[in-house]
Structures are given as structure tokens and as C-alpha cells.
Amino acid sequence: MTHKTDMNIFAQLESEVRSYCRSFPTVFTKAKGSKMWDEDGKEYIDFFSGAGALNYGHNDPIMKENLVDYIMNDGITHSLDMGTTEKATFLKEFKETILKPRDLNYKVMFPGPTGTNTVESALKLARKVTGRTDVISFTNGFHGMTIGALSVTGNSFKRKGAGIPLTHTVTMPYDNFVSDELDTLEYLERFLEDGGSGVAIPAAIILETVQGEGGINAARYEWLKKVEEICRRWDILLIVDDVQAGIGRTGSFFSFEKAGIKPDIVCLSKSISGYGLPLALTLIKPEYDIWEPGEHNGTFRGNNHAFVTATAALTYWKDDQFEKKITKQSERLYSFLEDLVASYPELEGQVRGRGFMVGVCSAKEGLSEKIAAQAFERGLIMETAGPKDEVFKLFPALTISDEELEKGLQMIKESVEATVNPKELVTNG
Amino acid sequence: MTHKTDMNIFAQLESEVRSYCRSFPTVFTKAKGSKMWDEDGKEYIDFFSGAGALNYGHNDPIMKENLVDYIMNDGITHSLDMGTTEKATFLKEFKETILKPRDLNYKVMFPGPTGTNTVESALKLARKVTGRTDVISFTNGFHGMTIGALSVTGNSFKRKGAGIPLTHTVTMPYDNFVSDELDTLEYLERFLEDGGSGVAIPAAIILETVQGEGGINAARYEWLKKVEEICRRWDILLIVDDVQAGIGRTGSFFSFEKAGIKPDIVCLSKSISGYGLPLALTLIKPEYDIWEPGEHNGTFRGNNHAFVTATAALTYWKDDQFEKKITKQSERLYSFLEDLVASYPELEGQVRGRGFMVGVCSAKEGLSEKIAAQAFERGLIMETAGPKDEVFKLFPALTISDEELEKGLQMIKESVEATVNPKELVTNG
Amino acid sequence: MTHKTDMNIFAQLESEVRSYCRSFPTVFTKAKGSKMWDEDGKEYIDFFSGAGALNYGHNDPIMKENLVDYIMNDGITHSLDMGTTEKATFLKEFKETILKPRDLNYKVMFPGPTGTNTVESALKLARKVTGRTDVISFTNGFHGMTIGALSVTGNSFKRKGAGIPLTHTVTMPYDNFVSDELDTLEYLERFLEDGGSGVAIPAAIILETVQGEGGINAARYEWLKKVEEICRRWDILLIVDDVQAGIGRTGSFFSFEKAGIKPDIVCLSKSISGYGLPLALTLIKPEYDIWEPGEHNGTFRGNNHAFVTATAALTYWKDDQFEKKITKQSERLYSFLEDLVASYPELEGQVRGRGFMVGVCSAKEGLSEKIAAQAFERGLIMETAGPKDEVFKLFPALTISDEELEKGLQMIKESVEATVNPKELVTNG
Amino acid sequence: MTHKTDMNIFAQLESEVRSYCRSFPTVFTKAKGSKMWDEDGKEYIDFFSGAGALNYGHNDPIMKENLVDYIMNDGITHSLDMGTTEKATFLKEFKETILKPRDLNYKVMFPGPTGTNTVESALKLARKVTGRTDVISFTNGFHGMTIGALSVTGNSFKRKGAGIPLTHTVTMPYDNFVSDELDTLEYLERFLEDGGSGVAIPAAIILETVQGEGGINAARYEWLKKVEEICRRWDILLIVDDVQAGIGRTGSFFSFEKAGIKPDIVCLSKSISGYGLPLALTLIKPEYDIWEPGEHNGTFRGNNHAFVTATAALTYWKDDQFEKKITKQSERLYSFLEDLVASYPELEGQVRGRGFMVGVCSAKEGLSEKIAAQAFERGLIMETAGPKDEVFKLFPALTISDEELEKGLQMIKESVEATVNPKELVTNG
Questions:
Q1: In angstroms, what CA-CA distances link C22 with B13, D88, D297?
Q2: To the nearest whole angstrom, how far is the Cα of C423 from the nearest Cα of chain D?
Q3: CA separation for the pair C159, C165 (Å, rounded)
Q4: With a CB-CB cutoff of 8 Å, which residues 49-68 of chain A face chain D?
Q5: Of the given ranges (B418-427, C124-133, D216-225, D374-383), which has the lowest mean pLDDT?
Q6: What is the CA radius of gyration of chain C?
Q7: Residue C72 touches partner D, C-beta closer than 8 Å
Q8: Best residue in C138, C153, C197, C361 to probe B by mutation, most B CBs within 10 Å?
Q9: What is the enclosing helix (H) or strand (E) of C60?
Q10: DSSP conformation class of A105
């Protein structure tokens, strides 16, 4: 492409449903690590990471090399769930590098290559295993946009979009939903134990350990532990949707490791391919792998390009160096945000999150969106979350350098300053 | 990979849900055009085309070159629905090459990159546009495996897998469902016009013009035309699911062109990327593009690798040479199958389909599966379809050479012979 | 009451939902046999029979005497499902007089005392017995107004009133729904036998042998017989809703006797108490009586006043005199209506029904309602039926005298004449 | 009936669903005021009152006289919703005696004559008025057994009986459900106000002020007041199901009077006819009476016998004498039960309820049922309630004499003694 794209092309040809191109109104053309460039050559620091699908940054050189080699050699591209060399390699490496060292034992299912498809497969299987129909999900949970996954998603705007009633689910209060004092699980258990509660024993409880779309709400480890205990007591399957919080985002490969729990089913997608290529996995405890062949499927479930990069991505987890790096930088993220909130009381801000999945919730309506817009102008890609977009959300690549990180944080600080004290902006401008 | 994969790896590590690796028990490693090779170096002719996702064959050289260039230059890989150079290029080319010459006017939506996701988006939108909840689908229709799409899918095994009741849909008889004489649409209209019929006016009617999974059932053009008329009369949206039948499979880019109809919404996926990369499009008449930003979405909706190859694939449609080639070879396919059915009355066979989407339905239970298994042994990849797998299904790449085509057909003939007259097999063996 | 009621009282104090007082705008105060009187002393012939709840006419003298005796002696009035002398008496008499002579063996359940409640109990039980969820009902079927019964009711106005989607039911075409030639059951069976039809094997098929509210549609005996065969073949429970067509209305105690079928569950209400008192019965084949105690119930299920009159009503069935009377007069009804339709081609009329459940369907919109209104002015109570009120419906008491019958028929003739040739009316008036 | 009924008749002829005849295994034949007699001439004190349908006792002499007069004069028995003298009289008297003095303004709807039918009508109307689908109900609420009413009923055994999923309802915790400290309405409001809660703003909130079947749980007045405020704030209709708690049972005609609230819809049945005859009323604020004629109906909605007795019953409410009597005796009930629980710590009992709707909840599984069985043997009719039948429930007629009341209480005391100290029983026996 030698000439510049007319930005109107999207308004003319693409559906009104498009959204990110409205928050980030430019045409991107190139990316590397934590940097992106648009057609004007403007450089951006990426604190968005493709909504969590680019935890290893853009176009990682090893993955890239392996992928190009594979393509050049006419490796199989698309194969549904036939046997291929690349799928076998990935399965073996995933077992050795990820599951075994964590003492986890799961069969791997490849649903259609998106987060919502793995959630749909998990719900189907839990219903099949238990013979029950209902599923308990949590307030502000987000699990996808197809009808099955949307039924366990809390957001009222998204639910309304279904156009039909979303049924067979019960929403329970997530950790800290009502207040800090209230133990929301005491409440949940009363419903399970009382035969007149109107709530049937469910097939499964599905949750994110840290809610992304819902506003960067991190459940306490003891709360997660107690959910697992409730599942065991009532013979309910525990599904952890690790699509966004998994693959290192909270500091460990799986987000639930430090809580010491072992979910019955785990949903993975987004960063599992490493390179931003579509792929999704549903991990299933072997005793629950009672699918009939083809009982759930999807055309693109065998995305060999994604297997190539996903296998390469696993090398990050061969030792604990990567986790240590995340932990260290994560502390910096936290201290920065705590300082920010303290320095700008006008934010009415609260720091939230865990690992590289953090944000600030501002009690002032609309403020977080303004800050994110300011950041974009300064060259930082950052989005908002929560039912009212009340949280600005820091999602750097896990591979980010200290220098890039600081540059991004500086831009956030400036954006907050410019938003909170807009008069100075005018003076400076 | 220098050493051979142990086939057991899939049974050990992959979920029981895997299916194609059971019909085709080998490990594929390389592919080109209409040929595939497994790790033993055995060559196969591909009459399966990745279940319709590889209409242009494997690893088309132009697409390959463009894709590798793009990757080597660190083009953006993953971008959700941000503006990117590649998306803009694809949108423009799709408009110029496909829509304009066919006098079609659609806005383009990118849902999650799978067939079921585009169907889910179409159903949501039709419900939003009309404010109604129900959708009419047809017997033996297949539209996907997530709950919304599964609700309009006919197959009872797949429906049961939902684990919950599938609601807000009414199944009507597809063309020729009851008998050749009965006009199934007269029946459908009685339900719409009688206020006591128990069937509400639906938001949409969704259909495939040729049913793939359902058994290669081709609806007559006049039947399709009449469905469109009924939609207009009752103010119902017409959704054509062209995921499998589209992109040239039946002889024209869209499968509905020759029927002379203009659906309100069109679902595309599978071969739209050309190279087997995950991508899906929902085409929407501009007057119905009333989405709110982000009202339906999916992480991998901006798959730029797929945009690169999809743009390259559009060159096949610059003039009418490609369509002519399909038409010509399609006649050969038909005459071959008609001869086959006539030569082997033991098949109790019926030729079905349109264009490069054809098959033989055998009234003898289990026979088609045996023929497909025989074909695999001989080096031909071919699958079965229909509620009882009663149809063996010929899905060659549209780019196949006459020589490869004849080779494949020859193997089918031998497979039928070996299945129908097994004694000779023993003699020959 | 010595002074006259102000008719406005109903508009002022009663809900807008009231309906019959709009068609019959007067205040009734007394009734006997086939006659009713309003507060002005005007006498009416009753061809309505309380919508089928007064098959024995108003205030039958024997029933009345027994009821008054019972009340005077302080017999138990209300007892839920405790044991009472009157319930025992009724159960024994019903067994001896009705079930035994017809070679039927049913356990008797007393749900809440309305038609919709017996239907709800039947659907619950069929689902429990089979473990399936769906129920097949027919176009223009009417089974009640509570959500379960409404789900199997065809009328779109009534369905819409639910305010929520009505699910777990599939509507199939009733006999003659599409055209006289089409065998609607061939169609139904295709759906059951084809695994891709989208229609699951249901728990039950529910039907009326003659549809009352739906427009006096009488199914042919061979059609009913074939439905029973289909139920047996697929292990589906057959529920006959005999709430309106039962208790002699079509000429025999049960409406299905002449079809030679034995439903698995029978719903009775309306005329079962004989005197117009609320009562409902669900008859259940003993092998399907697998209820847990109290699994379905209702406060007024033990209405002893109704047991007293219901027992008395059974005396009508001790021999075949009553049936013979109905048959004889029914022939008169038919010949009268056939003559009427022939004499008044302007009616564009079609005679429908069976026994004492007959009517004329007029193809002229609004005409039947006008005729019924004319009849009311002349002193005849008669209502309309069908999705567009296109049928005027003759429902005399089974006990009506020949003289009263002729008087009523004469008024219908005059009403037709006055409606079809309104100018003469003016001349005569 | 001169000879005795064989008790086996019910097991032989009546469905397994029968329940009260199992708890009270005898054949009742006569009743008067608070006394019942069986065929052996044994006399019982009635602390059950027909599950709340006999608040004025059995066979009240004035109602009886009016009813017999009406029948003897051939008054209309059954009239659906035609205008009748008796309906007009009742409507006027109800307006004057009940609504006006309480400053309430409601239109009166007559659904089918059972509690579940009035609830179904209320839910339909609330959905129509608001255009919303969901309804919030409370833990341990009981509203009926037809699918619509069952959907808002908490009991898991009864819900499971539906055989299909019960949808469009959300169960919230009733007052004191989780613990005494927790404000369950704070919790409810969080769900309404948070756009990510997964709970949509409902059409209505439905509740009983004192839960009968659910275990005699009385909500505090301030809790009820707060529910009304929440309804006003969010524009939600408030439905009070006063089927069991209404008509004087808690001390005032409507159970909600002392809470100072004005529900939008009130459901009445059970004791509204006064004599135990089937009747139900749905009271609707005039601005919400937007029904179309016949949009909800039921054959027996015009039960004139019930109108006769219901009008007579209203004389109890002409002045405040009746309420004063109830209040006085209610104090006696409470002090008796408090003493009982104190005297028998083995009961692990808790006194519950309000007015003449009281009981003791025993923490010892099965104990309450044993006490009720002992009471029956001694000649007292008393039932149990709660999800595990953990409450024995005192429901005397509101018209009971002090002498009868004391006799009943004495039998309860003896029954508790005999159950808690069974050895003495043996000694005495």
C-alpha cells in the first residue's frame, strides 16, 4: 500500500457495529513488540494488547520465523480435527511444559477458535456430565456473545442484544459485589441448601478469577477456594473462564494457580496462540471427557498456523524467569497507580486488579473514557471497562521492556493531569 | 519434524470429541492445491476441501506469497475491529469485485471468525430489526453449534447436545422434505396466515440454498424465489447462510445468484479467506444495519492474515473464467455420478446437489460410510453427510485440474465396486 | 333483589377483561333447563350452555334437590383431597356407570376445578412419565389460559397475552388444516422419523376430537385412529382434552368413543359436575399414575357440592336413552343447518361439527357475529368461534325439548334472514 | 349414605397424587363452624380451615341460608362473565365494605376460580403493562401449580414437577432468609442498579406478606414498605398474593394493611367466597386495567353460588368487631406457643407468623409431622408447612369460640408432650 487509506471507508462499508476504530480513530499498518504504527507513521505504545490476545506482544520474532517457515514449506493450513504433525507437537508440548509441572491433568478439546466457542463447549459438557440444566454465573461476568455464553454474561446492554430471553442461568454476587463486609458465598450457599429457594443445584459454576470486561474485579484467593469447596460439596462442576485472565496475564500461566484450585473445565483462547491468531482450547478433566465424536465442533478448530506459534510461545514457560519478570513489573504498575490515585483525588479513583490486569475505577462518570482518549492522542493505546466504562484498564504485553512501560505510564499520568486540570491544557496549547 | 508422530497421541491428549481423525486415521503434514500428504509420504486427492473452507485448494501460491510478505513486514496481525490497511483494502475489493457487479448493496460486519458466529450475529440483528423473537428454519438445516445457531439446526443428535431446550424457532419442511409432489411452502404459508396456527410471524427465515451437512439437498430456484416472496409479503427478514454453499461452491460466488433473490442478511465464512484461515462476514442490507457499536463482537474479528489472503482470493472473480471452469467440470461430476448410480443399482443411489457440491444418497444404511472408507484407503479424502450419513459427498477444490478430478472419480468408482461387490475384492487381493 | 341492576356497574367496577357481558348486554337473574331470564323478565332460549359447562341445562331438578339436601345437612363443603363420603360415592359411580361399560381403566385425579388446571396436570404427568419436554399440539387447538396450557393453544391473540415466549411445544396441522387432500399426519410422521427435522420425539400429543374455540373443526375418526397409532409407534402419550367435547356433547359420554381409541390421559371439566359447579378430572391410565403425593395440587380440588351434582348427573348414562335422544336431535340440527346454508348462499357458509357441537362457518368477515347479535335480540343466546369469529356456534343443552330446539332454530333462521337481507327488516319493522 | 365408606376406595380409584387423605386417614362427612365429623361420628376441632379457604368456619348459617334460597329460586348458577344480579351485588358490596373504607381503588377481575389462576392473570397483566418479561419472586414463596405461577414458586420438589425449565423469574432472598442481620433488600437493589448484574428490571415483584406453604415466615412491615419503595423507584409493579394471608387471616381484611402499602395488583381466592366455594379475584389499579376483552379468561369465572356466600361474608367487615376478636385471640395463640416452646426445649422450636397464621418451626427433622399426627389422633386437624415440613401450622377459623380454641391448644400441648416424651405415652397406653 503506497497511498493512505481514507478513514471514511469504514463508515461507508463496515457495519455500525464496529467499535474500537471509534475509540482509536486511525489506520494501523505495522506492529512490533509493544509498539504499533499507523499509516501516518505515528508510533503508539500498546497498553491494550489486542484485548488480551497479544500477551507476548506483536509479531514475536521466534513465532514469526517458525510461522513463515511453516507456510513456505506448504505445511497444512486448515485441517479441522484431522491428525496433523503440528497439532501433535502442540499437544505434547502443552502437556510437558504447562500441565505436568502444575500437576494438572486435562484432555484438550479444540472448539471453534474464539473465546465464546470454548465457553459454549464447556457449558454443553457440564450439562451433559451432570444431567442438569442450570448454570450459576456471577455479576459482571463476561463470557462471550453467542447465545449460550451470553446467557452467563452479566452486562445488560449485551444481554438485551440477544433479542430473546436468556435462560437456564442464575446470577450470584461476585466477591465484593454488595459490600466489602458481606460474604457473598454465604448467600449463594443458602440458596443451594434451602429446598424452597427457587434455585436448583446447577450443572456448573462459571467464573473469571479476575473480571476483565466487568471492570477489573479480582476475586480474593480465599473466595475462589470457597467456591471450589461449594462445588465439591454439591457435586457441581467448576468452570474457570481463563480466556482473558489466563496465559500469564495475572502473573502465572493459569490465573487460578495461586488460589490453589483445580477447575473441572478451563476455557482458554486469546493469547494461547501467542501471535494473535484465532485458537481456543477447552481443558477437561479426563473423567468428564464423555463427548461423543463431533457432538460439538467448528470448522476452524484445527488452525495449524496457530499451533505453530502456540508451540513456540510455550518456550516462555520453560523456566520461572518470565513469571518473575511479570511479578516485578506488576509491582511497579501497582505502585504507580496507587500514587496516581493519591496524587489526583479528583479522580475519586480506586486501584483494581492483579498482575498485568490492572486499572483504576473512577467514581466520576465519563472520566475514565476521557483519560483514555487523552492517552490515545499522546500515543498510548488503552481501553476502558466496567458496566459504565468507569475503569481505565492497563493491559501491557507481558514482554514489555521497562523503558516502554515507563513511557506508557508517563503518558497516563499526563492524560490524567490533562483531564483533571483541563485549563492548563488550554494554557499549554 | 523429522520423526513420525505416534497416532496414539490424539487418543491420549485430545478430547473424545475429535471426529475427522477417526475417519481419516493418519497424520497429515503437507498440502498443495488438491493434494495432501501424510507423514508416511502417502499422497491423497482431496475431495473434502476442509469441509468447504478450501474452495481454492491448499496453499494457493499467490495468497501464500502475499501472506508471507505481510508477515515478514510485521504487518498488524491481530487488531479486533480497529482500522487497518488490510481491512480497508479487503472492504474496497469486496465491494468492487463482488457486490457491485452483482448489483448487491451490503454493509459488512466481522463477527467472530467462524460460521456459527456469523449466524448468531444474523439472528440477533433480525430480532432487533423486527422486534420479534421467533425464527423459522428448515428440516435438515445446519447453521452451527453455539446455542443460538444450534437452535435453527435440525439434527437431533446435535440438538440434544445442547443440554437445554432450544427455543424461539420453528422448523418448516425444506423443499422436497415430505414428497416430491407436496409444495412445502403452501404448508408454511397456511401457518403464517391462520391466526390459530400457534406459529407467530417470525423475525426471519434462515436457510441454505443447498444443505451440506443435512445431506446435499438442493432447493429448486422457484422454491427459493417463493420463500423470498413470502418474506416480503409478511415483512420477514430473509437470511441466507452461505457459509458452505457460498464462495463459488455451487458455481457462482453467492449460491443464491441464479435464484434471482436478494437476501436481507448473508452469512459467509469457510472459504471467504481463501487460504483456510478463520474469517467470517455478515452482510447486511444498509437499512437494517442498526447495530449499536459493540452490540455484537468477538476478539478475533479482525484477522489481518485472513484479510490478506481473502483479498488475493477475490482475483479469481475478476472475470467469468472461473465460473465457466466450475460449470464445465460440474457437468462432468454430474454425468459421472448419474452413470455410477445407473451402473450400480445395488447402491439404491440418488444423485444430489448443485455445482461442486454434490453427492450420492444411498438408501442402504451404512453403505456410504463404507464407500468413503474404501476411498480413503485408495488415497481419496471424501466425507459423508445427512442425518444417517447416508450421502457420500464430493467437495473437490474449485481449482482442481481435470486430471486430478478424473483420478478422484476413478477412485470413487473403484471404492463403490469394492463395497458393492466385496467378493471380487477378495479375489483381487 | 327487588330493584333493577344498573348495567354500568360492570363497566365501573369490573375489569376491562370481561367479555360475554359485552355480547349479551343484560343482567341475567334466573334459569331453568334451556331457558334464561334477565331482570326485565325477558326470556331467552340458551344455545350456549355456559360454553359447554351446562350440557344438562340449567338447575336440573334432581341435582338441585340433592344439592340442597346436602347443604341443609351441613355436608362437608370444602375438603381439598381429604376423604369424604361424597367423593367416594362419586368415584364409585363414575367407575361403574362410565368407565366399566366402556372398558376403560383410569385412575381419577382432581386438579384445581377448571379446564386449564386439568390440562396443566396432564402435561406435567406426560413429561414426568416420558422424561421428555416437548408436546405436540394442533393448529387451532384450545386448551386453556395458564402458561402451560396456553403453550399448547394455537390462537395468536391469546398466545401473545402470555407476555413471555411459549416454549416446549410444536404445532402440527390439524385434520384438514391445509386442504382436504393433504394428509396432515403423513407430514407429522416425516418430522418424527427424520433425525434432521428439528422436532424431537415429544412427551405427548394433545388434541380435541372436535375443536370448539378453534372453529368447530371435527377430526375424522380415521385421523384420530392414526394419531393413536403414531403415539403407540413412537411411545408418545396421547392426551385427549375432552373439556368441551366430552360429557355427551358430541353424542357419547367421551367424544373419542366412536373413533375406537383409548387415550392415555383424558382431561374433563365443564359439564362433569352437571350443574355448572367448578370441577375438573384428569383420567390417567394406571401404569402412568406415577405422581408423588401433592406433586400437583390446587386448593379447590375437593368441591363436594360438585361431587353431589356430578353423581346425580351420572344417572343420565345408566342406559342408552340419553345418547339416542342426542343422536336424533343432532340429525335435526344438521339438516336444519344444511338447509340454511343452501337457502342463503350469501352466507358463503359451511356446516361444521358433530353431535350437539355444530356451527356454520361463514366466509364473509364479520357476518357470523352479526347473526349472533341478531339472535340475542330475538331471545337466543348463541356465541361465535374461530380465529376470526367466523363461525356461529350451536350449543344447546343435551336435555333440550324438541319444542325449545325448534324455537331456537327458528330464531337463527330469522337472524340470518335479517342479517343477509337487512332492507326487508327495515320494511317489516 | 347409610353404610360406611371403605377407605381403600381412594387408593383404588383416585390418583397417587392425593395427599391430605394420607395425613388425615378417615372419611369426613359433616362439618359446622370449627368442628368436623367423620363417618364414625368422631368429632374433630379444625385448626386447618381448608388450607385457608374456610376462614369463617364450615357452613356458616347465614351464608348457608342465602345459598339455599338462591338455589331454591333457580338463581343462575353458572354464567361465565355475563352480567348477573348476584355478581353486581357482590361488586357493589365489595366496593363499599372493603375498598372504600381502606381508601383503595381497584377494578375487579374474575379469573378461573383458583389461586393459581389469579396469579397467572396478575403475571400476564404486569408483563403487558410494562412490556418486560421477568418477575422477581422470593425464596420460599408459593404462588400455585400451573406453569406461570409455578415459575415464581420456590419449592424445588414442586418446581421439578414442571418437567420443563421455569423461566423469566429471578428469586431474591425473603426477609430474614440469610440471617437476621442481613438486609436482603440492599442485596436486591444492588442487582437492580448494577448494569452488569445479569438481572433485568422486572415487570413485577410478587410476594406474600406472610408465607404460608413456605413455613409461616412473616415479613416485617418495614421490609414490605421498602419493597414498595423499590417498586416505585424502578417503576416495577407490586403484586401481593393474598390468597392465603388475606381475608382476615393475619388480622385485617388484606394482610398488607398495617404495612401501609398499596399494591398495584392483589390476588385473592381461598376464603373470598366465605363458604369454601371456588372463587378468585384479581384486584387491579384502574390505570393498569388495560386488558383486551377475553385476553385472559376461564370457564368458571362466574360462580354465582360463590357470589351469594361472598356477599354474605362481607357482613363480618361492616364494623371493627371482627378484627378486634381476631386480635384478641391471636394474642392468646402467641402466648400459648411461646410458653410451649419454652416448656419443651426438646422442640428446638421457634414461634412464627402473624394473626391467625402461626406456627412453630422445629429444628428437629420430622418432629413437626409427628406432632401433627398425634394431634389428628386426639381429634385435631392441623397441617405442617415449610420446605422440609418443619413447621406445624395453626390455622383456626377466625370465627372460632374461645372454648374451641382452648380445646385445640390443649390437644396440641398433649401432642407435643406425647411426641417429645413418648415413653409416657406407652405407659398411658
A1: 72, 15, 14
A2: 31
A3: 8
A4: none
A5: B418-427
A6: 22
A7: yes
A8: C197
A9: none
A10: -
Q: A165 contacts in C (CB within 8 Å)?
A: 164-165
Q: Specify whether the CB–CB gap between D137 and D304 falls below 8 A.
A: no
Are residues A59 and B74 in contact, defined by beta-carbon separation less than 8 angstroms? Answer: yes
Residues B80-122: pLDDT tens digits? 999 999 999 999 999 999 999 999 999 999 999 999 999 999 9
Quote the minimal CA–CA distance from D290 to chain B in Å: 21
Q: Give CA–CA dist B375/A8, Å, rounded.
A: 52
Q: So what's the pLDDT on residue A2?
A: 54
Give contacts of B165 with chain D, Cβ < 8 Å. Answer: 164-165
Contact B24, B46 (CB under 8 A): no
The SS3 call for residue D337 is helix
Q: What is the pLDDT of residue C227?
A: 98
Q: Which residue of C has its CA nearest to D269?
A: C299
3-state secondary structure of D389: coil
Contacts of D282 in chain C (CB under 8 A): 15
Q: Is A287 exposed, middle or buried (0-12, 13-18, 19+ CB in 10 A)?
A: exposed
Residue pair A63/A309 in contact by the 8 Å Cβ criterion: yes
Long-range contacts of C220-229 (CB under 8 A, 24+ apart): C220/C175, C221/C258, C221/C259, C221/C260, C223/C175, C223/C184, C223/C185, C224/C256, C224/C259, C224/C261, C225/C259, C225/C260, C225/C261, C226/C185, C227/C185, C227/C261, C228/C259, C228/C261, C228/C262, C228/C263
Cβ partners under 8 Å of residue D44, min gap 6: D35, D36, D37, D38, D379, D380, D381
* Residue pairs between chains C and D whose CB atoms are closer than 8 Å: 382
Contacts of A351 (CB under 8 A, 6+ apart): A334, A337, A338, A341, A358, A359, A360
| Domains of chain C from N-terminus onward | 8-60+320-422 (3.90.1150.10), 75-317 (3.40.640.10)
Asked if B165 is an interface residue toward chain D (Cβ–Cβ < 8 A), one would say yes
Mind listing the pLDDT tens digit for each residue in A25-80? 999 999 999 999 999 999 999 999 999 999 999 999 999 999 999 999 999 999 99
Chain length of chain C:
429
CB atoms within 10 A of CB C327: 14
Residue A182 banded pLDDT, cuts 50, 70, 90: confident
Q: Which residues of A touch D154 (CB under 8 A)?
A: 196-198
How would DSSP label each residue in C123-170? HHHHHHHH----EEEETT----SSHHHHHT---HHHHHTTSS---SEE
Per the rule left: phi > 0, alpha: psi between -120 and 50, beta: everything else, D375 is: alpha
User: CA D389, CA A195: separation in Å to the nearest integer?
Assistant: 11
Check D171 against A139: CB less than 8 A apart.
no
* Model pLDDT, residue B429: 36
Cβ neighbours for C24, distance < 8 A, ≥ 6 positions apart: C376, C381, D82, D83
Got the DSSP string for A262-273? --SEEEE-GGGG
Q: How far apart are CA C311 and CA C291, in angstroms?
A: 26
Write out the three cell numbers for C259: 373413533
Residues D153-205: tens digit of each pLDDT: 999 999 999 999 999 999 999 999 987 777 899 999 999 999 999 999 999 99
Chain B residues with CB-CB distance to A117 below 8 A:
112, 114, 116-117, 145-146
Order of strands across the sheet with D107-109?
Answer: D107-109, D281-284, D265-268, D237-241, D204-207, D135-138, D169-172
Amino acid of residue C21: C
Distance CA A53, CA A74 (A): 26
How many CB pairs below 8 Å do chains B and D form together? 3
**Helices (H), ranges, A213-265:** 221-234
pTM: 0.96
To the nearest whole angstrom, how far is the Cα of D164 from the nearest Cα of chain B? 9
Longest Cα separation, chain D: 69
